[in-house]
Amino acid sequence: MKKPVIAIDGFSSTGKSSISKIIAEKLGIVHLDTGALYRGITWFALQNCLNDDETINLEQLFSSFPLIELEFKNDNGELVLFLNHINISKEIRSHEVSQNVSFIAKQKEVRDFLLQSQRNLAEKGGIIMDGRDIGTVVLPNADFKFFLTASIEERTRRRYQELLSLGIETDEKFVKDNLIERDRIDSEREIAPLKKADDAIVIDNTKLNKKETIESILAYLKK
Ligand code: C5P
């Protein structure tokens, strides 16, 4: 039997990635956190493509694409992101990356660069992909589509805890402002904006914990 292709989209810090990871383990399928890819490109730009005034030089970034190899590798059971063979899984969660990623992700050249590799990974089925445009653009024919949402207060709390657990110093106001700003840029951009697919199932998990959200998704998958 062909394993399912599942698209999970939604607002920042609704738990998309951690929930998708557990569902993938339960179903024996692959999980792809597409946000990590956009963060990886942003990290590369911040390292290699800065103007004298510290802004990102987009022309330089776009011309560097042939030099960028993004790869997920299994590191003690965790799928972690490598850029040109360097493990950048912690670096991509930094403040600097979070503050610039939505600007990078709205560029057509960046989205085109990442689109085909995301689709190729889903060709054989058996994948859960989380992001912002998976159900609408990347995998419009996915077998199941979900759209996660939660209150900004709850999402702030979750991201703040996540950053602390990664050892990244931060404060709640900064985290909240960054979530609001990223959601705004992601929703308003011209290409592949953050949007619920018409046929996606909406799950508001403000009052659900991770386990309950997973159970609710699994219940739909069994239907
Ligand atoms: O999922 P995460 O919060 O790590 O995503 C970081 C950013 O990457 C988002 O705010 C968005 O700008 C971008 N992104 C995107 N399309 C996706 C996944 C992420 O534009 N499919």
TrEMBL record:
<dbReference type="GO" id="GO:0005524">
    <property type="term" value="F:ATP binding"/>
</dbReference>
<keyword id="KW-0963">Cytoplasm</keyword>
<keyword id="KW-0547">Nucleotide-binding</keyword>
<comment type="similarity">
    <text>Belongs to the cytidylate kinase family. Type 1 subfamily.</text>
</comment>
<dbReference type="GO" id="GO:0036431">
    <property type="term" value="F:dCMP kinase activity"/>
</dbReference>
<dbReference type="GO" id="GO:0006220">
    <property type="term" value="P:pyrimidine nucleotide metabolic process"/>
</dbReference>
<protein>
    <recommendedName>
        <fullName>Cytidylate kinase</fullName>
        <ecNumber>2.7.4.25</ecNumber>
    </recommendedName>
</protein>
<dbReference type="InterPro" id="IPR003136">
    <property type="entry name" value="Cytidylate_kin"/>
</dbReference>
<feature type="domain" description="Cytidylate kinase">
    <location>
        <begin position="6"/>
        <end position="222"/>
    </location>
</feature>
<keyword id="KW-0808">Transferase</keyword>
<keyword id="KW-0418">Kinase</keyword>
<dbReference type="GO" id="GO:0036430">
    <property type="term" value="F:CMP kinase activity"/>
</dbReference>
<dbReference type="InterPro" id="IPR011994">
    <property type="entry name" value="Cytidylate_kinase_dom"/>
</dbReference>
<dbReference type="GO" id="GO:0005829">
    <property type="term" value="C:cytosol"/>
</dbReference>
<keyword id="KW-0067">ATP-binding</keyword>
<dbReference type="Pfam" id="PF02224">
    <property type="entry name" value="Cytidylate_kin"/>
</dbReference>
<feature type="binding site">
    <location>
        <begin position="10"/>
        <end position="18"/>
    </location>
    <ligand>
        <name>ATP</name>
    </ligand>
</feature>
<dbReference type="InterPro" id="IPR027417">
    <property type="entry name" value="P-loop_NTPase"/>
</dbReference>
<dbReference type="GO" id="GO:0015949">
    <property type="term" value="P:nucleobase-containing small molecule interconversion"/>
</dbReference>
